[in-house]
Amino acid sequence: MPKKTTKKGNTKKAKVSPSSSKPKQTATKLDDHYVIKPSQVYTSYPYTTYKPQCVGSFCSDKMGEIVHVNDSSVFPRLNIPEKLPLDLNSGNRTPRTPSSTILFRRILKWIVHTGFDVSSVSVVARRGILKHIGYTLYNRYKNPWSFKLCKHKGVVYLYEPSTKPQSTDSDSQPWLYWGCRYEELVTSRNHVTSREKELLQQLSGSSVKFSGDSVKWLRDGVNEEEEKNDNQSREESGDKEGITKPTNLSENDKEDVTKLTENGNKSEIKEGLDLPDHLIENLRENVQSMEPSSREQEEKLSKIFQKKKSSSSPQIGSYRGAYTMVTGKISHINVLLCGEVDAVCPETGELVEIKTCTERKLPDRLCFGWTQSFLAGVGQLHFGLRDGDGVVHKTKTMKVGDAVRGAKYWDPAGVMGLMGGVIRWVVGSVPEGFSGTLLYMGEGEILLSTQADGGHFLPEWYTSSLT
Q1: What is the per-residue pLDDT across 188-215, written as a single tens digit (0 to 9) for each?
Q2: I want to staple 336 with a disulfide (CB 3.0 to 4.6 A). Which of 22, 121, 312, 420 is the partner?
Q3: In a 10 Å sphere around its CB, with 0-12 CB exposed, 13-18 middle and 19+ buried, how is residue 356 labelled?
Q4: pTM of the model
Q5: 18-65 pLDDT, tens per residue?
Q6: CA separation for the pair 230, 233 (Å, rounded)
Q7: Is residue 324 within 8 Å of residue 351, measured between CB atoms?
Q8: Residue (of 58, 123, 55, 51) closest to 340 by Cα position
Q9: Nearest Cα to Cα of residue 133 among 112, 149, 151
C-alpha cells in the first residue's frame, strides 16, 4: 500500500505564550521542567568564581519602611557569651514571623530609593530562595518548595508568597523561638557608630572622648589620666556611674549647645534626633545641668535631645531587621540578592550568620548556613549548640570558607552547580511578561507553571519608577 504523503507547510507548530488566545492555563498545568541530574554531574562547577560585591544595605522598621539606607554602621554586633549554659526559654516567647511579601517590597523600595540600575542584572531575589534551590540536591527529606516569579523588562523577579502564616506557638515549635532568642542574647545594638561620634563631637566639642564603642564625658581642662584617677576614687566611694556627673559639663559645652538652639539650625537639630536612647539620656543629663536662663531656652534645649515618636528619623536600635544587598554572577548570570544580617564581628568587621542547633545536627546545618552565607558575602558562621530543651552548652564560630572542610553529606560545588543550572534555565526559558510559579514537589524535577490570571506581580509604584 502506498504511503500517504503531505505537502510541506500544511501543518504549523502553534506558539504558546501567556498572552495566547488559547484558554488560560491553570497553575497545575506545567509549561516546562528542569530535570535534576545526579549530584556528581554538578560537582565540577567552579563555585569559587562567585564573588559577591556589596552594593548597599538597609534596615527596616516595624511599619515595613526602609531606614538607615546604605549605613551598615548601625548593624548589630556579635557578643559571644562568656558564661554558659545559656537558657533560651526566657523572655517574650513569641518568635518573629517576618512576611516574605513585605521583605520583597523592601527590596524594591531599596532599588527605587538608591537608583540602582536593575537592568544590569537578570535576577532579583532574596538569597534564601536560591539557598532552597541549591540545597535541594542534598535535602534528604525532599521538602517541597514553591516561589512566585515574573519577568519584567528583561529581569526575573523571585519571591516567596506568604500562603500560610507560620505558627507562633512556641510550645509546639520551640526551635522557632530559640533561634530568635539566641540571636537577641548574643547581639548588641547599643554601640556608638561613626555617625553618632561625629554628631556628639559637633554638639559637645572636645569634652567627648571615645574608647572603642563606649563614650564618656570629660570635664573641661581635665586630661584622660586625671579622669581615670577620679573615676577610680568615685568607684571606691560607691559611685560606679561611667559618666562624669552632669554638674561637670564645661562652659564650652553649654555655649555650643546654646548657640545651636539660638541659631535654630534645623538640620543639626534633626540630626541630633538620630542618636540612640543610651546616648540621648547621657546628653539630656548634661543639658539639664546648664541652668537655662528662661523657660523658653529650656524648651529649645529639650527639643534637641527629646526622643520624638513622630520623627521621620528613626532611633538606632528601633529597627526590626538589617539587610545587605549584593551582586554577583552565578553560571554567568548577573544576580541582585538581599540577605538579612544577623550581626557584625566587632574585631574584623565581617558579617556573621547566627544559628542554633544540636551538635548532632551541625553537619546538616552547615550546608544550610554555608549556602546562605556564601551567597550574601557573609564572613563568619556562629553556632549556639543547644540541647533538646533549648539550653546552649557550647558555641562554635568559624570562617564560612572553613565550613566546607570535611563536609560528608554535601558538596559546595553541587549546591552552586544545581543553583546555576536552574537560574540559567529560568532566565533562558521565561519570556518577557511571564508570571508563574517555580516549584519542587519532592521528585526529580523542578517545575515551571503559568500564573492563571497572567501579568506580573510587581507594584505599579515600582514599575513606573523604572526608566
Answers
A1: 765 555 555 565 555 554 444 444 444 4
A2: 121
A3: buried
A4: 0.70
A5: 333 333 333 334 358 999 999 999 999 999 999 999 999 998 876 778
A6: 5
A7: yes
A8: 58
A9: 149
